[in-house]
Amino acid sequence: MIHTENEKRGWVVGITGASGSVYGVRLVEALLEQGFPVHVVVSNAGWRVLSEELGWNAGKREQMLREKFDGLPGKLHYHPIADIGATIASGSFQVEGMVIAPCSMGTLSAVANGTSDNLMTRAADVMLKEGRTLVLVPRETPLHAIHLENMLKLARLGVRIIPAMPAFYFHPETIADLVDFQVGKMLDSMRVEHRLFARWNGGQAAARLSTED
After folding, report:
1. So what's the pLDDT on residue 202?
2. With contact defined as beta carbons under 8 Å apart, do 118 and 82 qualify?
3. How many domains does the chain contain in total?
4. Is 167 a member of any domain?
């Protein structure tokens, strides 16, 4: 596949059954807003959580995605979790990389151990074998030794592990602010420019010292 200078390669976004489906939805939205093609894969448990947390109708999957993302510059591609023949299941189909947000411990374990038993874990395996960007956003607490060992194993392979741990130094006022911070950290690892949160500039103490100087 030949890409022109102005053409953007797409990203794959996976949404699993861990709590925090809003992270994946906001990431898809942020990428589409910048004109990126986005390939979305949602696990069956992920659809359950989208229903529980965001009120989505899991029985009308593609319709819900269209209603949420229609009108944005980028192109959305939805792939059912069982479609092992989808484009993103092959390394010959070129994308920039993949983010799984949120990432359940079951999916993280499958990726860490090469268990490609559905489209999401196969797509993640493709990212690893092709040396592309892979970002996982685990959302679980507390973590036991197996969780930590799987994360360490993946980190040693170059996978970016970004736990769902929003910060508070930028004085968030809404839940949306906390979500944007987390999604912004994902975009940083993807090397995608954004303005989703105010970056640290030394804080009030630094500003005071600067004034005194």
Report:
1. 80
2. yes
3. 1
4. yes
CATH, residue 18? 3.40.50.1950
> Has residue 19 been placed in a domain?
yes
Q: Per-residue pLDDT averaged across 20-36, rounded?
A: 97
Classified as helix, coil or strand, 161 is: strand
Q: Residue with structure tokens 């990126």?
A: 36
Query: How far apart are the C-alpha atoms of 28 and 38, rounded to whole Å?
Result: 7
Instruction: Supply the range of the domain harboring residue 153.
Output: 11-212
Residue type, 82: A
The annotation places the binding site at 17-19, 43, 104-107, 139, 169, 185
Structure-token pair, residue 52: 């529980």
Render the burial of 27-65: b for 16+ CB within 10 Å, e for the rest: bbbbbbeeebbbbbbbbebbbebbeeeeebeeeebeebb
Please report, in range form, the residues annotated as the binding site for FMN. 17-19, 43, 104-107, 139
Supply the pTM of this predicted model.
0.90
Let me know if residue 1 belongs to a domain.
no
Show binding-site residues for dimethylallyl phosphate: 169, 185
